[in-house]
Specification:
This protein is α/β, with parallel strands linked by helices and 358 residues long. It has 11 helices and 13 strands. The two termini are 32 Å apart.
Length: 358
């Protein structure tokens, strides 16, 4: 195999202007996924579209609030969506498997590994995993942002070579996309500052926006995975990105050459599941952010908040309150509070279970 690719297809790629499903676009993208498989790539598909599918099938009840409308459309639409994918891939004799997941399903190492093992088995048997958030029950603050975050987690979890995020624009512009003078930024390195180029607005039919996409892309690239943002409505864009990338407009986030362990990859995406936080002093910040590998010791802790147990994820804050890292705690919150500033004890967060924010 040449490599493993995660392809995320956003809501605006699969939706028409009226919010219903664009089956012609779906068919074209399936053709391209099959073409990549024929080039010996393993492909995992992270797809939106269940709500658009449901909207195509049901008129809906205007008395329902937005949460219940989303539940209704996604419950009905998910059946239709996976059936369309099944029929499109079946024309090529390619089997698919459905993976419905939630953000909480990544919160423990056991569930994380269960999902990874499931998709590994599918890929080993020639099955294309089709992944989507289970919107019928993911209605709390623990929701993914339009599958951008989900695709980053999947790419990291599955040790992908590349993550391709297909949106309805060509990439990240150095100005307003509507301005003819603006150009797509072709390469984004670890030191590239994009803050002045990114708008916080959301897409028409999705929950995410370019701010979310760039945040996820930068984190995944730090883990050594190439990330591409491209226009999924351009004909043959997926194949062109790998066959002739120089002449295909897109933004690429250059992967870090540093190897990141599987455990650290999980922890990197787990700060949203943190059960608490510890604040550390300046000496601890300097040690953690330095060039040498360092664990977080209790002697550097100044305060603790939240209620957590040994093995839970905790956020690590500097004296100014800014998060500098997250990791798996070797103590409960009560034990940390009782031993703040203590010398000679095992690390609060061992380096092997520590992710430093860049």
């Amino acid at each position: 195999m040449k490599g493993r690719i995660v392809v995320k297809i956003g809501s605006n790629v699969l939706s028409r202007d009226n919010g219903t499903l664009d089956q012609t676009r779906m068919s074209s993208l399936v053709d391209q996924v099959v073409a990549l498989r024929n080039r010996e790539y393993e492909v995992i598909l992270v797809t939106s579209g269940a709500v658009a599918c449901g909207r195509s099938l049901l008129k809906g009840d205007p008395r329902l609030d937005s949460v219940r409308q989303r539940q209704l459309y996604s419950a009905v639409g998910q059946v239709r969506l996976i059936n369309i994918y099944h029929n499109l891939f079946r024309e090529y004799g390619v089997p698919i498997g459905q993976v419905l997941t939630m953000k909480e399903s990544f919160s423990t190492r056991k569930e994380y590994l269960n999902q990874r093992n499931c998709m590994e088995v599918m890929l080993a048997n020639g099955v294309v995993p089709v992944v989507n958030e289970n919107d019928t029950i993911s209605v709390t603050e623990l929701m993914f942002t339009d599958n951008d975050e989900l695709s980053g987690l999947v790419a990291s979890m599955m040790d992908a070579e590349a993550l391709v995020i297909l949106s309805n624009i060509d990439g990240i512009y150095n100005g307003a996309p509507s301005d003819p003078a603006s150009e797509v930024i072709r390469k984004v390195g670890a030191d590239t500052d994009l803050s002045s180029f990114i708008q916080a607005g959301k897409s028409s039919f999705g929950r995410g926006g370019m701010l979310t996409k760039t945040s996820i892309a930068q984190k995944v690239a730090q883990e050594g995975i190439r990330v591409i943002i491209a226009n999924g409505k351009r004909d043959n864009v997926l194949v062109d990105l790998f066959d002739r990338p120089e002449s295909t407009v897109h933004t690429e986030f250059v992967p870090s050459p540093q190897e990141v362990s599987s455990v650290k990859k999980w922890i990197a995406h787990s700060d949203g599941f943190a059960k608490g936080a510890v604040t550390v002093n300046r000496d601890a910040v300097a040690a953690l952010m330095g060039n040498e590998a360092a664990s977080l010791l209790l002697v550097g802790v100044t305060s603790v908040e939240g209620d957590f147990e040994e093995g839970d994820i905790v956020r690590i804050l500097g004296p100014d309150g800014r998060q500098i890292a997250c990791g798996k705690s070797a103590y409960s919150s009560e034990e940390v509070a009782a031993h703040i500033g203590a010398h000679g004890m095992k690390p609060l967060v061992h380096y092997d279970y520590l992710y430093i924010e860049q």
